[in-house]
UniProtKB/TrEMBL annotation:
Protein's name according to its UniProt entry: GTPase Der
Quaternary context: Associates with the 50S ribosomal subunit.
Residues annotated as domain EngA-type G: 4-168, 177-352
NCBIfam families assigned to the protein according to its UniProt record, in alphabetical order: GTPase_EngA (TIGR03594), small_GTP (TIGR00231)
GO BP terms, alphabetized: ribosome biogenesis
Upper taxonomic lineage: Bacteria, Bacillati, Bacillota, Tissierellia, Tissierellales
Organism: Tissierella creatinophila DSM 6911
Function: GTPase that plays an essential role in the late steps of ribosome biogenesis.
Residue numbers binding GTP 2: 183-190, 230-234, 295-298
Pfam family, one: MMR_HSR1
Keyword Nucleotide-binding in record: yes
Length: 438
C-alpha cells in the first residue's frame, strides 16, 4: 500500500496538535495553551473514506526567531515539507492574519507542495466572513474548521485525500521483490546498495520512485528480480545530526510500507539503538519479512565469543523478531555480502510459503496432544481445525470454540510448533483465531 503523507504546518498555538488528534482519532500530540509545546514531529496513521495516510504534526514555525528550540522546529518542519504529499497550513481565525503567517506562506509557496489553508477556531460557522483576510496568502479558498469542536473536519479531509498519489502497479512490478534498507542514518545503507549493485552489475534501470526524491534500483540475483527502495535523501550528502536522524524516520516508514523485505542495517560499533528498535517494530507490526545486517563488522576488535555475544545481545533487544536471520557484513569490503543476497532469496521463499490444510492440521493436532490448550473456570479451549488464508506474510486462521479462552502463551506455542516444522526464517507469522460458526 502506497500511503499518502499529510503534514500539518503553522505557527505555534494555532491548534495543530488538536487537529492532529482529531484526524488520527486518538489523543497523541501534547496540547497545551502555550506556544512551542510540540517540539518534535509526531506521526500517526489516519484514514478517511478508505484512504490510509500518515499524518505528521510539526512544532510551530516562527521564521524570525533564531533561538535553538525554534531552529530545531524549523529543521524538522522543513524535512516534513520535503516529504509530504499534502501540506495543511493552519492559521488562527480568532487572532487573524499575522506577519508570521505571511512568512510561513512564503516558505510553503517555495516548497512546490499542494497546500490547503485551514482557518481554525471558528466555532460558529456564522463567523466565517471574518476569514476574508487570509485570501491574500494565495492558497485559494480557506477551509473553515474548529478542531476543538470537530466542525468542518470531514469537508477538510475530503479535500486532502484528493491530492494523495493513486497507487498504480502493473503486473510487471508485482513480480518484483521490493526490498528496503532501514536503520539510522550513516550506518552504511547507501554503501551496501552500491556494493550490491556494483558487484552484481545487473542493474536494469534507475527510475524515479513514488517516494519523493527516492530512486528505485532494479537488479536480478539468481532466479529472482528485486528492486531496492532507496529512502528519500539516502544518497544526498548532508550533515547528519541528532535532529536530522530523528526527523528522517517518516521517510523510512514510507519505504517500509512499499517493501516486501526489510533489511535492518545496524552499526556494529554502536549496536542496536532505540531508533532501530522503533523502526524494526513498525516493520514487524506491518508484517514485513526481515533480515538483520550488522555492518562495519571488519572494524570490530575480535575477542573470544564476540560474534555469539553480539548476536545474543541483539536477540535480547529485538526479542519480538527472533525469526529474523542475522548476518555480519562489511559494505566497504564486501565481506559476507553474497551471504546476505542468498538470505534474500531464502527469506522471500519463506515469505511466500504455503502449507496445505492437511499438513497444517497434522501439526496442530500433534501440538495439542503434547500440550493441551488452556482452560478457564472448567471450560477448556477446543481447537477444531486450521487453514492458511494468505501469504506475504503467512497468515493462518484457526477455528476454536471460544476466543476468550485462547491465551497468548499458547498462541506463541502454536507458532513455535509451525516454525519447528517449516522454519519460516525471516518472516513473521500471523495467527487469527475465530469462533466456529461466526
Amino acid at each position: 500500500m502506497n500511503k499518502g503523507i499529510l503534514c500539518i504546518i503553522g505557527r505555534p498555538n494555532v491548534g495543530k496538535s488538536t487537529l492532529f488528534n482529531r484526524i488520527v482519532g486518538k489523543k497523541i500530540a501534547i496540547t497545551e495553551d502555550q506556544p512551542g509545546v510540540t517540539r518534535d514531529r509526531i506521526y500517526s496513521e489516519g484514514e478517511w473514506l478508505g484512504n490510509h495516510f500518515t499524518v505528521i504534526d510539526t512544532g510551530g514555525l516562527e521564521p524570525e526567531k533564531e533561538d535553538t528550540i525554534m531552529s530545531n522546529i524549523q529543521k524538522q518542519a522543513q524535512v516534513a515539507i520535503e516529504t509530504a504529499d499534502v501540506i495543511l497550513f493552519v492559521v488562527d481565525g480568532i487572532e487573524g492574519l499575522t506577519s508570521t503567517d505571511r512568512e510561513i506562506a512564503n516558505i510553503l509557496r517555495k516548497s512546490g507542495n499542494e497546500v490547503i489553508l485551514a482557518v481554525n477556531k471558528i466555532d460558529n460557522p456564522k463567523n466565517g466572513s471574518d476569514v476574508y483576510e487570509f485570501y491574500e496568502l494565495g492558497f485559494g479558498e480557506p477551509m473553515i474548521i474548529s478542531s476543538e469542536q470537530g466542525l468542518g473536519i470531514g469537508d477538510l479531509l475530503d479535500e486532502v485525500v484528493k491530492y494523495f498519489p493513486k497507487e498504480i502497479m502493473d503486473s510487471e512490478e508485482d513480480d518484483l521483490i521490493k526490498v528496503t534498507l532501514i536503520g539510522k542514518p550513516n550506518v552504511g545503507k547507501s554503501s551496501l546498495i552500491n556494493n550490491i549493485l556494483g558487484e552484481e552489475r545487473v542493474i536494469v534501470t534507475n527510475i524515479p520512485g513514488t517516494t519523493r526524491d527516492a530512486i528505485d534500483s532494479y537488479f536480478k540475483y539468481e532466479e529472482n528480480e528485486y528492486v531496492f527502495i532507496d529512502t528519500a535523501g539516502l544518497r544526498r550528502k548532508r550533515s547528519i545530526d541528532e535532529n536530522i536522524e530523528r526527523y528522517s524516520v517518516i521517510r523510512t516508514l514510507t519505504a517500509i510500507d512499499r517493501a516486501d523485505i526489510c533489511i535492518l542495517v545496524i552499526d556494529a560499533l554502536e549496536g542496536v539503538t532505540e531508533q532501530d528498535t522503533k523502526i524494526a517494530g513498525y516493520a514487524h507490526d506491518n508484517g514485513k519479512a526481515m533480515i538483520i545486517a550488522i555492518n562495519k563488522w571488519d572494524l570490530v576488535e575480535k575477542e573470544n565469543l564476540t560474534y555469539r555475544e553480539f548476536e545474543k545481545s541483539i536477540r535480547e533487544t529485538l526479542g519480538f523478531m527472533t525469526y529474523a536471520p542475522i548476518v555480519f557484513i562489511s559494505a566497504l569490503t564486501g565481506q559476507r555480502v553474497p551471504k546476505l543476497m542468498d538470505l534474500l532469496n531464502i527469506v522471500n521463499n519463506n515469505y511466500s510459503l504455503r502449507i496445505s490444510t492437511g499438513v497444517l492440521n497434522d501439526i496442530i493436532n500433534q501440538a495439542v496432544l503434547m500440550n493441551q490448550p488452556p482452560s478457564e473456570k472448567g471450560r477448556r479451549c477446543k481447537i477444531y481445525y486450521g487453514t492458511q488464508a494468505s501469504v506475504r506474510p503467512p497468515t493462518f486462521i484457526i477455528f476454536i470454540n471460544d476466543k476468550e479462552l485462547m491465551h497468548f502463551s499458547y498462541e506463541r506455542y502454536l507458532e513455535n510448533q509451525i516454525r519447528t516444522h517449516f522454519g519460516f526464517s525471516g518472516t513473521p507469522i500471523k495467527l487469527e483465531f475465530r469462533q466456529k460458526g461466526k
